[in-house]
Each structure stands twice: as structure tokens, then as C-alpha cells.
Design goal:
Layout lengths: L1 E8 L7 E7 L2 H13 L5 E11 L6 E14 L5 E6 L18
Antiparallel strand pairs: 1-2, 1-3, 3-4, 4-5
Length: 103
Amino acid sequence: MLVYLWTAVDGARPTQHGNIGISDDDGRARGAAEHCLRNGQARMAVVEAAQTVMAAHSLSLSYLPTGAGWWAALGPVGEVQWAEFAGPRNHSRASGFQPDLVH
């Protein structure tokens, strides 16, 4: 099963979460992240596709990110700009999109 993990970051480091969530629909995940950007709760957001997997040691369900997803940040006139990325989980290489986190 494919799910979409979203994180709306309120600080300059991705470990400072403003809001996080999960959805079975990429549009709803991006919409939730976008809401956090538009209302000032976040400066950037990441939505990443993940697969549900079962952990062998505990037989509990977990999520394994696929490395594909989207970055988002507010543009110069307040519009949300999305950039798709794919590949290894190095989000800083998201299709050349580098959100400006330091103002």
C-alpha cells in the first residue's frame, strides 16, 4: 500500500517539525502541507511517498519512504511553489529546487 507522509517545517532545520501527517492521497497530503505554509505555520514542506512494510523483529506495520515526492515553499508573492523529486532520500537535490530557508 502506498501512502504519503507530509511534514511542514517551521524552522531552518528539517528536524524542527511544525506539523506532520499521513494520507492515502497525494493531493490531500499536499493540501494539508500547503495549508501550513499559507497560514504561516511553516516555511517549507515535504511530501514523500512511502510503502507500508512489516517490521520483522516486531511484526508491526511501518512506513518505508520511496525517495519520491515534492518540496514546497512560498514564492516571492506568497504563492506555494512545488518541485518534484525522485531518487535517494537526499532531499537537498530536489530537482534543483533549493528553498530559501534563511531570510
